[in-house]
UniProtKB/TrEMBL annotation:
<keyword id="KW-0479">Metal-binding</keyword>
<keyword id="KW-0456">Lyase</keyword>
<dbReference type="InterPro" id="IPR002762">
    <property type="entry name" value="CbiX-like"/>
</dbReference>
<dbReference type="InterPro" id="IPR050963">
    <property type="entry name" value="Sirohydro_Cobaltochel/CbiX"/>
</dbReference>
<protein>
    <submittedName>
        <fullName>CbiX/SirB N-terminal domain-containing protein</fullName>
    </submittedName>
</protein>
<dbReference type="GO" id="GO:0016829">
    <property type="term" value="F:lyase activity"/>
</dbReference>
<dbReference type="Pfam" id="PF01903">
    <property type="entry name" value="CbiX"/>
</dbReference>
<dbReference type="GO" id="GO:0046872">
    <property type="term" value="F:metal ion binding"/>
</dbReference>
Length: 126
C-alpha cells in the first residue's frame, strides 16, 4: 500500500507566512521521492485538507500519515481537523493516521528546548 504524508498548518492572509512549511514539504519530498508529501491549510489558504487528501488518494496513496503543524493539539486539531479527516476517511476509503501536533512530539520539544538553552548560553545567537 502506498503511503503518504500530509502536513496541516493553520493558514494566514499573508502568503509569505507559508514559506517555511512549503520548504519543509519540498525537503521531505526530496528525501522521500517515492512517497507523496502534501501540505494543506485549515484556513485562509489552499489546498484545504479535504482537497489535499483527494489529491493523495488520486495519486494512489492508500494510507496517509497526518502531522498537524501546530504547537498544541487541543484547539484547531481536535475541533476543526478531526471532523474533516473523519469525513475524508469515509468518503475516500483511505487509511488516515493522525499524529500528535508537532509541538507535542517529544523530538520537537527536545529541539525547542535545545534552541532555547543555546540562546541563553550564547547571549542571543543560536
Amino acid at each position: 500500500m502506498k503511503r503518504g504524508l500530509l502536513l496541516v498548518a493553520h493558514g494566514a492572509r499573508n502568503p509569505a507566512w507559508a514559506a517555511p512549511f512549503e520548504r519543509l514539504r519540498e525537503r521531505l519530498q526530496l528525501e522521500q521521492p517515492d512517497r507523496a508529501v502534501a501540505l494543506a491549510y485549515l484556513e485562509l489558504m489552499e489546498p484545504a485538507p479535504a482537497q489535499a487528501l483527494q489529491q493523495l488518494a488520486a495519486a494512489g496513496v492508500g494510507r496517509v500519515e497526518v502531522l498537524p503543524m501546530f504547537l498544541g493539539g487541543a484547539g484547531h486539531v481536535q475541533r476543526d481537523l478531526a471532523p474533516l479527516l473523519e469525513a475524508a476517511r469515509a468518503s475516500l476509503g483511505i487509511e488516515i493516521q493522525v499524529h500528535a501536533a508537532l509541538g507535542e512530539q517529544p523530538t520537537m520539544l527536545d529541539a525547542m528546548s535545545q534552541l532555547c538553552l543555546r540562546l541563553l548560553e550564547a547571549g542571543g545567537t543560536p
